[in-house]
Amino acid sequence: MKLRWIAFALLCALLTVGAISFNSASLQPKKKKILVVSHTAGFRHSSIPTGEKTLTEIAEKSGQFTVEFCRTAEDVKAMLTPEYLNANGFDGVFFNNTTGNLGIPDLKAFLKWIESGKAFMGAHAATDTYKTSDLGGDRSFVEMIGGEFRTHGAQCEVDAIVDDPKHPATQHFGSSYKVFDEIYILNHSSRDRVRVLLSLDKYPNDKSPSAGQPGDHLLSWCKMYGKGKVFYTALGHREDVWESEPYRQHLLGGIRWALGLAKGDATPGNRQPARP
Is domain 31-258 classified as CATH 3.40.50.2020? Predict the structure, then answer.
């Protein structure tokens, strides 16, 4: 009889431990899911594989989201539709140095998918994608992302101003971020439409005649797009930028914000801070 009671007590203990483990597992938040798009229909950056590796590593390290990849024209046709994205549980997309007209089957439907409450994130040449010239004057993609690539000069070192030191994408920088990269000059990017995260107060220090002239050049921002969230950084041409820890934290913070995993202000119109 005593042995039966001992066996019964052990069984109850095992069941209790199992129930606790099951409940703990069931209470764990479900990881978010991002589709990383690396297909290009124009210039192809050599840093794209480094970008894929970086995004994979920061996803694994964070433990909060996973990444899958869309790399070819065939992938774009099959994967960048609301039906596929919803059926496979994607919470957002990341455009990794994409360029040109990617061949999304229904661009308007794709934009509506983002607008419904999904996340769009993009690095560097994401603003060289679906330009108004690619769409016969249609500015719908440009309006979603918040800017359009115009030109760049020679790669150079810049001391970017941190416009929002409280945002998760920039809170680790302090008041500025020194980086050597290819610096974009953009069209259709303005403070009254986006929340600026990084900017320059003069034309980049390259070899162009405009070098050093005062101006307001946006480098990174976030914005709402309907119920969706958009994060963009114009940095990310070079492999060593992708591999650097400050840039990785920049990306991680922006991704977490866009996925709703971190709080940050998206109110447009923040003024450029004065240099100390």
Answer: no
pLDDT in tens, 26-75: 466 799 999 999 999 999 999 999 999 999 999 999 999 999 999 999 99
- pTM for the complete prediction? 0.90
Residue ranges per structural domain of the chain? 31-258
CB-based burial, 113-152: b 16+ in 10 Å, e otherwise? bbeeebbbbbbbbbbbbbbeebeeeeeebbebbbbbbeeb
Residue 114, sorted as left (phi over 0), alpha (psi -120 to 50) or beta, turns out to be alpha
All residues at 6 or more sequence positions from 31 whose CB lies less than 8 Å from its CB, including other chains: 63, 64, 65, 66
Q: How many Å apart are CA 98 and CA 272, to the nearest integer?
A: 29
Sheet strands (E) in the chain: 32-37, 65-70, 92-96, 119-123, 148-152, 156-162, 176-181, 184-187, 195-202, 214-225, 228-233
Beta bridge partners of 199: 161, 218
